Model the fold of this input.
Amino acid sequence: MREPAQDFPQKPHREPTEVARFRDRIGDWWREATGQTPALGGEGSTFQVIWRRIKLWFPVIVVLGLAAAGAGFYAFTGWRAHDLARKARANVKAGELRYALIQAESARSLRGKDPEVLRAYAIVLAANGSAKALEVWDQVRAIDELTDEDRSEEASAAVRLGDDARFERGVAALEAAGKPAEAKAWRSRRALQNKDFSEAERLMRLAAQEEPTMAFRLELARLLATINTPDSLAEAVQIVDAMAVEPDGDKALAFGLTTIPAGPATRLSWANRAFSDLQPDNEALLPAASVMIGDRHRTLDSILRQLQPVFTGAKPEERGSYARWLLDQKRPDDALVFARSAEARTSRGTFLVRAEALSAKEDWEALLKLVDAGSPVNETVTLLLRARAERGLGREAAADGALRKAIKASAGRGILPELLAQVDELGKTELASQTLLQLCSDRTTSEYALRVARWRFSQRGEPRLREEALRRALDASPSAATVRDLERMRRLMNREPVDIAETQAALDAEPGNIDFRLTHALALLQSGRAAEARRLLEPCEAIKHQLLPGQKAVVVAVLAATGSRNEGIALARTMKSSQLTDAEYRLVYQFTVAGGGALDEKSGESQP
Done:
């Protein structure tokens, strides 16, 4: 007889969790997508089954593709940021500071927290004279450990751009890293910057004793030569003599021959020692040749007979140095032999030597051909060479067009003042000034161009052009720092109200900008805070006679308002009325009258 069935206890029913449901859905999707179960919805045709599986896989493929693209884009922007950072540092070494700044800022926009990008940005800012470099070094320190090179770069920036407290922090970091000699060397450089020659010598001497490297010993010799007493010069000569017999002694001889103002007998001794090693990689050989020719121990022709075989089979860079030296000796034909045309397209040095040699020979067709064949130098230099060639061929319109393009290209590289000076030397001052005004009208270049225009037109005594530059820049970039500062200065000159917090903020952002300092000083003066204005201008005291006329006008007003009226009158007498705007003239007029006369249009002296 069968026993009655037993009732087993049942598990209590539980609703599946969201995680479990998701896991089940993923499992169902995987089995259907891979063909392990029939397609949902019944049998269907083969086409329907395939189409169903395509629809199942498509979202996954899209998501994976987007993820891969995102990862690829991130990797690309990282590579691009590092590439820009490397190029920025290279351009600092090449002197292309404005271009380096553009590259470093672009790199930072791609990877603003990458330590390598920030390192490059700090170096570029320091090279451009911006105290912000020190803030960026703080950012690097917060995310990565500073290397020895970093500490040296930071100390260099602190010497030039930081206050005493910041400089001490940078040097202390070197000491903490076990670099006491380098720390002393930086303290020496700081002392030299402050004209404390005795302290600079003491510290550099200690650095060279603790770490007697060639670099520190030669820097001590340079400092002793700068001090320029009989004893200090004698010791500098002794340092070079001692190092000349050591490995790499040619570097010490080259330094001595080009830097130390030694006597004729010493120079001849060093030159003879250099000529005892007739090798193209001897750094002292060409300086020694110059000394022998300059001191009339030998003729140029006799030197050339000895040097030509040495450099004939030399490396391209060594031949390039020799070709440059030949140019300095007024031997362009010989220079062209060693600066070979086949290398000019890829070698910047060779290209420039050939260009200068052809210019010296006035072979304008050959110069134009050289430029047209492809230039390894920057656009500004290339256009300047083209202008020179076109002008030599009598094609003035083409030359002027190339000069305008060269000026505009120089704005992007931060060499606008230098390029304008070269155009002035060509007798094209009006073209230079008009092109500069055009740059003030261009939003992409207006602030930099206005800074240059402010300096150029003030120095040249052209206040109307200075005002025109401001008008154009106001239309192009009204919010740019320099534009806003000049507009505030204009309003202050016209006795219009200005927010003193704005002038303070502008100065805080660029404490080394003398124009921003003068604007804030005038704002303080007109707010009844003359004593503060005087204290603010204390850093300008030693250079007040070197200031531009419009800048002097502010200093005159502050001096006169703080009990130094006679000093203000004396400074006012160094200006010509034609160099001032009407508002600037009104600012100083009362002080020149009080001194017994008015500013003379021609001499700048106060006349009775």
User: Anything to note?
Assistant: DSSP finds 33 helices and two strands in the chain. Residues 559 and 567 are 7 Å apart (CA to CA). The chain has a mean pLDDT of 85. The radius of gyration is 35 Å.
